[in-house]
Write a structure and sequence with these properties.
Elements (H helix, E strand, L loop, with lengths): L2 E3 L6 E3 L2 E3 L17 H14 L3 E3 L8 H13 L12 E6 L8 H13 L3 E7 L3 H14 L4 E5 L13 H8 L2 E2 L19 H5 L1 H4 L7 H14 L3 H10 L8 E3 L3 H9 L7 H8 L11
Parallel strand pairs: 3-4, 3-9, 5-6, 6-7, 7-8
Antiparallel strand pairs: 1-2
Helix pairs in contact: 1-2, 1-10, 3-4, 8-9, 8-11
């Protein structure tokens, strides 16, 4: 495993993160494909063994059962101080979305209070327009409140709209990216048109069924075949090579998923391979799912 600092902070994170939306009671949330606690246990153990210390969850995942699984897994397989997450304190606390109904001053002062009393170490935000994130950062600086150190946005070889404004802003501000959906809901990890039980049934995943993406998926497949590695490794290597990216969040439901993600850390793409992967991209409307 390789490790890095999250943006300009002193927080040391693994360069691969474990996304925990895949784990939870399937009867308590929107997703019917999630793994129960017994099935999920092996992935938490594997993450610890591979050195994946950045675990990402949310209180909306499967009615909160994902958080319960994570809490018990830390006790079972690791120690709280060795995992970057949140229990009685939060290492990184994300605003899941920009709240247009609440004055930003109210939100930011509350977050600053949480940092000052030791409940939160660093602040992050997720999936918003760059101007909204800039407004939050500016308001925090203006009042002397804690600013944001992390941005969790949707960024992958099939979804690059954040390169227009958000990523340049994060680079300027020293904000580290922890992208979700780094494999475009799996679309960048298998030949175009192949389906899995999740991709065939999950309405969010179906948003990636776009014919304009086929040239990019085909390019990932060609580079992977030329290298003799899985497509997932190529797609993640592309993402890990971007200067603002600290730690992509990888969802794992098969043992090879985390293994491939960690192997991508040692796959250095050539400039020509990067060009092959990027030249077929078609700009699109932004959406955050």
């Amino acid at each position: 495993m390789k490790y890095t600092r999250l943006g300009r902070t002193g927080l040391r994170v693994s360069r691969i993160g474990l996304g925990c939306m895949s784990y939870g009671d399937a009867g308590t949330g929107l997703h019917r494909w999630t793994l129960d606690e017994d099935a999920a246990a092996g992935f938490f153990r594997q993450a610890v063994e591979l050195g994946v210390t950045f675990w990402d969850t949310a209180n909306v995942y499967q009615g909160g059962t994902s958080e319960e699984f994570v809490g018990r897994a830390i006790t079972r397989f690791s120690r709280r101080e060795d995992i970057v997450l949140g229990t009685d304190y939060l290492d990184v606390y994300y605003l899941h979305r920009f709240d247009p109904e609440t004055p930003v001053e109210e939100t930011l002062q509350t977050l600053d209070d949480l940092v000052r009393v030791g409940k939160v170490r660093y602040l992050g935000a997720s999936s918003m327009w760059a101007w909204q994130f800039a407004k939050l950062q500016h308001t925090a600086a203006m009042h002397g409140w804690t600013g944001f150190s992390a941005m969790q946005d949707q960024y992958n070889v099939l979804k690059r709209e954040e390169e227009r404004d958000m990523i340049p802003f994060c680079l300027d501000q020293g904000v580290g990216l922890t992208p979700y959906s780094p494999l475009a809901k799996g679309r960048a990890a298998r030949p175009y048109g192949e389906q899995t039980p999740r991709s065939a049934s999950d309405e969010v995943a179906k948003a990636f069924d776009r014919d304009v993406d086929q040239p990019v998926v085909d390019a990932v497949q060609r580079v992977a075949e030329g290298r003799g590695v899985p497509m997932a490794q190529v797609a993640l290597a592309w993402l890990l090579g971007k200067p603002a990216v600290s730690c992509p969040i990888v969802g794992a439901t098969k043992p090879r998923h985390l293994a491939d993600a960690v192997a991508a850390l040692d796959l250095e793409l050539t400039a020509e391979e990067v060009t092959v992967l990027e030249r077929g991209y078609t700009p699109q409307d932004n959406y955050w799912w």
